[in-house]
Write a structure and sequence with these properties.
By secondary structure, this protein is α/β, with parallel strands linked by helices. It contains 14 helices and 9 strands. The strands form 2 sheets. The chain has a 6-stranded mixed sheet with strand order 1-2-3-4-6-9, with helices on both faces. Strands 5-7-8 form a 3-stranded mixed sheet. The longest helix is centred in the middle third of the chain and has 19 residues. It is globular. It starts with a helix and ends in a 19-residue tail after the last helix.
Length: 312
């Protein structure tokens, strides 16, 4: 599989200069959950804005696919670097829309899951573009999974990432477990996953989850852009080959698929469904209240153990 990935990536990159097609630039995605700017040549900034907590629902996933699919066929106008940030000062990307977990499994629900897997896979399979997460807010659940599957992660003073699913009786089955283990190692991944512990900026940097922590938001933005501009100067074929070869370090695809399928097996169990409904109640149906802003410490409210504090 990796050999095919590298071969296809090289063919794409070598044909890019001969391909005259143009990636169309739009100000916003079809559902309006993403806005696009081009701060410099070959660099695109994607800004996420989806509800009070930037939760991951069908419109956001559809918009991400709509943006990523054209990048599979690299042209001279395809960005070499894409930076993902958020217009929400409190959230980068939030959890999966928990109302979807409270529903029975339907074809519509299965399609959302399939599309989620498809777009997260593209973050790795599109080797002609480098994806950078610029995080300066909370990234719980799916947000943490998505960040872990990007090529680099840089964070500011507001950043906190957490996989809180274990507290619900669920698992971080959309890549959160497998990619976190590949990044920080098995023992640390188990500590943070099983206990639903939160990574703040300095801790995440020390463990290798984040490339770098910045204690100033503007410095974060400026530094990420400077890095993106430097990378974007170089020939695409070299960037393509490096990302392709380093894909060998990704967790095996069969582990990801087993984990994802297990999520659906678990989520409909009685205890798990009771916890999902309690989450929706505590979060006032996923409003940006103190419970949502406090994830993952606040997830202990399910067990009557949260004192209302939030890590700095």
């Amino acid at each position: 599989m990796h050999s095919l990935l590298i071969l296809s990536s090289l063919l794409l990159s070598l044909s890019a200069s001969a391909n005259a097609a143009v990636v169309q630039r739009r100000a916003a995605s079809p559902h309006g959950t993403l806005t696009f700017t081009d701060p410099s040549p070959n660099v695109t900034r994607v800004t996420i804005n989806n509800g009070p907590v930037n939760y991951v629902d069908a419109p956001l996933v559809d918009d991400l696919l709509d943006f990523l699919i054209p990048l599979q066929n690299a042209t001279n106008s395809t960005p070499k670097v894409v930076i993902f940030d958020s217009s929400n000062p409190d959230f980068w990307i939030g959890q999966i829309d928990m109302t979807s977990l409270a529903k029975p499994i339907t074809n519509e629900k299965k399609q959302l899951g399939a599309n989620y897997v498809k777009f997260t896979n593209m973050l790795q399979s599109i080797t002609s573009t480098i994806f950078i997460a610029e995080i300066d807010g909370l990234a719980p659940g799916a947000g943490n999974e998505i960040a872990a599957q990007m090529d680099m992660r840089f964070v500011g003073p507001g950043a906190r990432t957490v996989s809180f699913e274990e507290a619900l009786g669920l698992v971080a089955g959309g890549g959160g477990q497998t990619f976190l283990g590949a990044i920080v190692g098995k023992a640390k991944a188990m500590e943070y996953l099983l206990a639903a512990k939160t990574f703040d900026g300095p801790t995440g940097e020390a463990l290798g989850l984040y490339n770098k922590y910045y204690d100033d938001s503007q410095t974060l933005t400026n530094s990420v852009l400077q890095l993106a501009q430097r990378i974007a100067l170089f020939p695409r074929v070299a960037l393509n080959q490096t990302k392709s070869v380093l894909s060998y370090l990704n967790p095996p695809a069969n582990a990801f698929n087993l984990d994802f399928n297990a999520f659906y097996d678990i989520e409909q169990l009685p205890v798990e469904q009771a916890n999902v409904h309690k989450f929706l109640q505590l979060s006032a149906n996923q409003s940006a209240n103190s419970f949502e802003l406090g994830l993952g410490e606040s997830i202990m409210a399910l067990y009557g153990l949260w004192d209302g504090s939030i890590s700095a």
